[in-house]
Amino acid sequence: MSKYVIGLDFGTNSVRALIDDVSDGNELATHVYNYRDGVEGVIIDNTNPHLARQNPADWVEGLVESVKESVKKASENIAFSTDDIIGIGVDTTGSTPLPVDENGYPLSYSKEFEGNPNAMAWLWKDHTSANEAHKITEHAKKTAPQYLTRIGGIYSSEWFFSKLYHLLHVDEKVFDSMASWVECCDFTVGLLTGEMEPGKLKRSVCAAGHKAMFNYDYGGLPSKEFLSGLHPKLGTFRNKLYSEAHPAGVKAGELCPEMAEKLGIPAGIAISVGAFDAHMGAVGSGIKEGTLVKIMGTSTCDIMVFSKDRGGLHDIPGICGMVDGSVMDGYIGLEAGQSAVGDIFNWFVKKCIPSGYESKAKEKNMDMHEYLTTLADELNPGQSGLLALDWNNGNRTILVDPRLTGLILGMTLNTRPEEIYRALVEATAFGARVIIERVEEYGVEVRDIINCGGLAEKNPMIMQIYADVTGRPMKISRSAQTCALGAAIFGAVAAGSAAGGYDSVEDARDRMTGLKDVIYEPISENVEIYDRLYKEYKTLHDTFGLGENDVMKRLLDIKESVL
Amino acid sequence: MSKYVIGLDFGTNSVRALIDDVSDGNELATHVYNYRDGVEGVIIDNTNPHLARQNPADWVEGLVESVKESVKKASENIAFSTDDIIGIGVDTTGSTPLPVDENGYPLSYSKEFEGNPNAMAWLWKDHTSANEAHKITEHAKKTAPQYLTRIGGIYSSEWFFSKLYHLLHVDEKVFDSMASWVECCDFTVGLLTGEMEPGKLKRSVCAAGHKAMFNYDYGGLPSKEFLSGLHPKLGTFRNKLYSEAHPAGVKAGELCPEMAEKLGIPAGIAISVGAFDAHMGAVGSGIKEGTLVKIMGTSTCDIMVFSKDRGGLHDIPGICGMVDGSVMDGYIGLEAGQSAVGDIFNWFVKKCIPSGYESKAKEKNMDMHEYLTTLADELNPGQSGLLALDWNNGNRTILVDPRLTGLILGMTLNTRPEEIYRALVEATAFGARVIIERVEEYGVEVRDIINCGGLAEKNPMIMQIYADVTGRPMKISRSAQTCALGAAIFGAVAAGSAAGGYDSVEDARDRMTGLKDVIYEPISENVEIYDRLYKEYKTLHDTFGLGENDVMKRLLDIKESVL
Questions:
Q1: Is the complex ipTM higher than 0.95?
Q2: Which of A363, A486, B6, B553 meets the CB 3.0–4.6 Å disulfide criterion with A280?
């Protein structure tokens, strides 16, 4: 008699429901619902390129549809019964907060604020709050530097309080009307449990710790005094937030009858506290102490965990986040990342590929990435004479500096597109090595590396280059849906062993995750050449990233002054 | 009663004949003959990309055809008579030497060496002799450093002795069989005068001084001892070369009856000593003391002249050549340049422009350079946030270093092709400013700048950027054929005033050259921004060019080791 869990993965453009077998993590059925509002689910403003919002109505609709459809698919299997679903977990993008009323409903549901993007969810990649982020950082540096130590020293414009502060500046009416400011991963859990009122929500420590400076050592959220120093109304607003936050796997509640009816599954199913996609994806990839999980897509997110009692490791300079319980209860979750990886390759393919290449790719029935990869794969390491820095979207780890830009050198009059493409791939691999060296330097040993996400799944050349550049084997997560699988795992933990689930994340992980057979082993001749190239990369990294030559920032200053 | 002169311009792909009015330099007729042998006149070897040769039979055929056809066109003008042609001047590419027999005929004319590329002319851009160039430089540094002071400190693989030395290494039979090694500009003058025997040729001091280390201060060509130190046969060969060299404008002889008949013009016309295209082009642009003439094409050649009696100015570090009389008799000719200018833009257009741009350019009926220029022209200085180094083909002046490569920084995920295009144009302008600052630093004042060549003629955006980057007005030479006009001017000087020509180059220049009406004046807001960007360029220039970070060379080392 199998038991099943549902993982819900709320992404930028869609929501995915995944039904997994609790015993081995095997996928029974999955369904993706694409958001309807905005451009591929993102509400934009043509007069303000920094704005990116999301309509929470899409989440509700998507939740219902994706679960209903995946249950329908699973039901084709005669072994499956909805009565055997024991738990549900949720992962979402973040920080993606929205203003809610006293019942926990989105403010955009009200007549007054209908269609107002400020009353909708502020998507993770909304960058309207840059000034506020800067003010928060400066204010914290002066008055409460401890708030910055676990988040890499700079508070980001993508995060919870920057967005709240900006909302206060641009739409005080919405600010004054809301009863709370809630992350997507908490809101969607509330939808399932029916406990939506802000005071009853079980907030995620992953969201709280990584994005809202929440830490029990400092009394939870930043103090009223600190927030008042930014704006009196922010200080007052602290009461409308929360004083507790929980790791995923903790049971947030049970599926409420109203939602159960909509989904066509029984009420009472255990619902886990939510978390962010990368953090749950790391668990879906099989993370444990000593494992680095790399979630590789348009950007890369690096996740590790280590024991709380290890001591002395809390402050690793340049690591964007270290939060107790953000990945697994009982461990410090460590988050690092590269602001652009696949995005750099996409930029290059869109902006820099001549038509001759397009027609050849078409002839071979390949997309441009595949075609360039076949050409780039024929090159030896070092053969192009090129070297690049992977900073087209700034540097998140270890420099924590959005005001850095790309660099490429070594071009001759014969330099070809595939050579540049390979140099860009190598640059992201060098960036990955910098992160590994930094955490190891501070005592967090990286014993193995598991990769997941589109780039890891689809591009053996990229994986081989990462193996050769880091000198370490690259493993690939077995599941192609590690985030949704991670969410399902937490559903099984919230259910507990008595219900047929698990009592610890470790047990659930060991049973429900695995690796693909292929492992990319480093090739020693290549490792040797890349060691030399990495030295050159690191010199450029330090020259342009550590203040010796701040030309990139001065160019941005000039750019901004002439626009 | 007008008098006329003929200028002959032997280029890489074709030869042009130009018939000008002696009184005002006005063009009466012109004709271009495209070489037949090889690829657009260049004999290449698919197994050796460094090889570039030229069939001297093309020169002979081209000389006859282009003169005959231009005379035919001129004859449509009833005022014109071939009896009124008083002089002929010749400019050519260089260093482009060829092996000749005792009668001065190309060795490739003989049965034995027919079709042998080593027995043809070694075109200026033949790079097969890199090793030999290096050996010559090292040998001179150790034993005769004075030979290097006037040529920028490094003997180039493109030059006379490198090619002669390489010929000895790869085809000793050709080496042993030849009676001399003759530059194209001397060979073609011999064709006209009929005095082709090596001992009778009037060699050009422009070729001798800039490419063969010839200097009367050191006894002419490098000593027998020096050459023997490279190879005993080279030492012996010195006797087959020359001990005198002459500035253009000196009469080399008169048109011989045999050639006169072929050309359909009277025998006895004065023939000037030859010189290189850039040097004669500078005169065709109206060069005088204080004027910098920039000949802008795939690469840029910078020419200046200054008085011999000025003193103390001979050694300007990083200036590739300073030769007494190489431009005008009585002045030191100074040659500097940028190894790639138009070539960088061509590389970018060929290798990095997406098909969307191609179709839009086609729609607008523009070539890609025109289309990118219209887009790039809409950008403000500094707006792209990009900065580039113009070293895709190394750096000729002031670093004299072929082992430097391109660099571009400042890219984001939104960087567009036209932004990169503009950044590349700006990089070449910064490179031009470095040269100006260097010569002024050593006391050679640049009072005005005259531009000629394709880029200067056709692209106002480029000229405006050069004006804004240098903070100086950019003037454009009136003639579109400055090299051939310069050659014609020297024909008029060789003829002398008694024959209706001129007795000095200065007089001929003042009467026969002029400027276009348009002058690109610097725009002060732009100058200000470019001053800031230039400072950044200069820092990168020094970091990567002066040894602080030799990453470009190390990348080339690695590249060469893995190929």
A1: no
A2: A486
